[in-house]
């Protein structure tokens, strides 16, 4: 990825551009939710395809098992992510209520906490006094500072519904791709499996490319890494299905 030049960085750090950028309301980033759902959806579905093909099941069985598992696991993933993010939301709300109560009952003690927090950052003397006065003069800033510094909690409120939706959508959309060849009855079972493998590999690679593009890392390395991890999981499922089909 090309790095921004000095002129571009100077434009981005002009006071007006900085103010505009900081003035934007910060929202939760759901990339991790989408990536989680996409990878798990593709791995789960292709694992069903691989295991069923290895066991010698018919295309109809593969399709039925794949769709049923896709929807059931998609809902399960969405619910699990909803609960996880909701628990994080409750943790933030509880910490905020705790700090509001402490500021109400022992304001001097909370001011001392602010003082020690910024003292540990290297501030002292009159500068430290001004920081403490400024932070504690604004109740909202005071609470948000304590949440970040004492509890390590971010100031972006989590959204469990949005997280669940992104996980489910990515899970179903990407997870459906390996099943597409089994919709074409004119193809033989081996060809269906080959096309399914190619599509699954392409999805893994594209997911990796997306991560590499977002995080501005090597696109090829990110794509190959996700591709290898996804196909490894599918290969395990294929071998299990093959062994079970042979012995049972």
Automatic annotation (TrEMBL):
<dbReference type="GO" id="GO:0030026">
    <property type="term" value="P:intracellular manganese ion homeostasis"/>
</dbReference>
<feature type="transmembrane region" description="Helical">
    <location>
        <begin position="193"/>
        <end position="215"/>
    </location>
</feature>
<dbReference type="InterPro" id="IPR008217">
    <property type="entry name" value="Ccc1_fam"/>
</dbReference>
<keyword id="KW-1133">Transmembrane helix</keyword>
<dbReference type="GO" id="GO:0012505">
    <property type="term" value="C:endomembrane system"/>
</dbReference>
<feature type="transmembrane region" description="Helical">
    <location>
        <begin position="227"/>
        <end position="245"/>
    </location>
</feature>
<feature type="transmembrane region" description="Helical">
    <location>
        <begin position="164"/>
        <end position="184"/>
    </location>
</feature>
<dbReference type="GO" id="GO:0005384">
    <property type="term" value="F:manganese ion transmembrane transporter activity"/>
</dbReference>
<keyword id="KW-0812">Transmembrane</keyword>
<keyword id="KW-0472">Membrane</keyword>
<protein>
    <submittedName>
        <fullName>VIT1/CCC1 family predicted Fe2+/Mn2+ transporter</fullName>
    </submittedName>
</protein>
<dbReference type="Pfam" id="PF01988">
    <property type="entry name" value="VIT1"/>
</dbReference>
